[in-house]
Amino acid sequence: MASCMSARCESDRLLKPLTVATNRRLTKGARCGKVMAIAVQPAKQVEEKRRTDMKQRRVVVTGMGVVTPLGHEPDLFYNNLLEGISGISEIENFDCSSYSTRIAGEIKSFSTDGLVSPKLSKKMDKFMLYMIAAGKKALANAGITEEILSELDKTKCGVIIGSSLGGMKVFNDAIEALRVSYKKVNPFCIPFATINMGPALLAMDLGWMGPNYSISTACATSNYCILNAANHIIRGEADLMLCGGSDSAIIPIGLGGFVACRALSQRNDDPSKASRPWDSDRDGFVMGEGSGVLLLEELEHAKQRRANIHAEFLGGSVTCDAYHMTEPHPEGMGVALCIEKALIESGVSREDVNYVNAHATSTPAGDVKEYHALMSCFGQNPELRVNSTKSMIGHLLAAAGAVEAIATIQAIRTGWVHPNINLENPDKNVDANVLVGSKKERLDVKVALSNSFGFGGHNSSILFARYEQ
């Protein structure tokens, strides 16, 4: 008993709160392609549930935080995207010379100084460190100082940040220790490997007592978290929500697992050219790592504290292909249905969507299926521009949706959309005129759509626009 109490005291000591660092609703009809009717004919039922209460609480984005292979601040990250810089390179974290894939969007340098206490920083899995750092950065970006933090109603502030794989490194290390003896297993292996502990620790640090949990839907995770966070605000259960995703799986077991799935590009001799969405020479996706976190805020609350509003969150939707563990539905029905539902739930007309940050991972099947779904909904819009952030940073798994949402919001803010690098020979099944070229392009974004899809057939689409009173 004494040893148990001692272990608990040590756990409590190390798990003390971390050091704190710092009415747009379009009302036109929103019906898409006829493919929707095939999937259990949901259109009529969804239409009947269309939101009609125009006085509902509006949700805006007031903070953005990123940890990515192209920088750890939103402006630096987006400027690098606009310049077409690739963050994909040879893996340096471990010896992968025997692997068929030896490249990734690996974060080469990262510091937790001022963001996480040194003791915890040494013990946490990197996915958790990235998550907490991005969350703190989002608060700083939103102008949430310690003084403002102390004045917030903590019961109306929450955190929903997910991960697809969680603390793989911490868990793997525990397995290796177990080969010697169970007595060698780190007592923190379970809490620091579980996905929910990231938002839990962030809430402990901030004292935020509102909704707090994680969602794990593979690579669609971030969008699910963002949508759920917004719904908590709309329902009046929260005023501020930190939301997004985080993953760090560029370790032997992570790389080996995806290699075994035969999902990764093997263009090891030219890493910066490996991720090439919609290009006829694409041969698989490139792993990435990092975190993206948005601070969503109720509009009146944001106005009252004179926050800088980056964009308005209009809404979104989720669906399931119900088809295959890793392959998209051959007719793209689940994706098209998800987009249609997102438009209807948001009250947005398809004619107003002129920018899509696509999921497009650089896989032979996925890129084209998503493209066809987009065309079924927006093919008649001559202004439509489509790009994929993954061409430069690879696939950040659970973090992809939030990082790409931030890229989408930056496009709204700056009037520039980033290029699709490596799109040298467009697939014969796509119209290259719809896709952004090899250079950044000027675009007055009316409404932007950001897609994220995950293994298991999880689909998610979210919509943003410039905030207008």
Q: What would you note in describing this structure?
A:
This protein has 469 residues and is α/β, with parallel strands linked by helices. The protein has one domain: Thiolase/Chalcone synthase (Peroxisomal Thiolase, Chain A, domain 1). The protein has helices at residues 2-14, 35-38, 43-48, 74-82, 118-123, 126-141, 146-151, 168-178, 189-193, 197-206, 221-234, 252-260, 299-304, 333-346, 364-378, 390-393, 400-414, and strands at 59-67, 89-90, 103-104, 157-162, 212-213, 240-247, 290-298, 311-320, 353-357, 385-387, 416-417, 441-442, 447-454, 458-465. The strands form 3 sheets. Strands 5-4-6-7-1-8-14-13-9-10 form a 10-stranded mixed β-sheet, sandwiched between helices. Pfam families: ketoacyl-synt, Ketoacyl-synt_C. Residues 56-466 form the Ketosynthase family 3 (KS3) domain. Belongs to the thiolase-like superfamily. Beta-ketoacyl-ACP synthases family.
Strand order of the largest sheet: 5-4-6-7-1-8-14-13-9-10
Largest sheet: 10 strands, mixed
Strand segment count: 14
Helix proportion: 25-40%
| Percentage beta strand | 15-25%
In the CATH hierarchy, the architecture is 3-Layer(aba) Sandwich
Overall pLDDT: 89
The CATH class, by name, is Alpha Beta
Structural class by sheet pairing and helices: alpha/beta
User: How many helical elements?
Assistant: 17
Note the topology.
Elements: H1 2-14, H2 35-38, H3 43-48, E1 59-67, H4 74-82, E2 89-90, E3 103-104, H5 118-123, H6 126-141, H7 146-151, E4 157-162, H8 168-178, H9 189-193, H10 197-206, E5 212-213, H11 221-234, E6 240-247, H12 252-260, E7 290-298, H13 299-304, E8 311-320, H14 333-346, E9 353-357, H15 364-378, E10 385-387, H16 390-393, H17 400-414, E11 416-417, E12 441-442, E13 447-454, E14 458-465
Parallel strand pairs: 4-5, 4-6, 9-10, 9-13
Antiparallel strand pairs: 1-7, 1-8, 2-3, 6-7, 8-14, 11-12, 13-14
Helix pairs in contact: 6-10, 11-17, 14-15
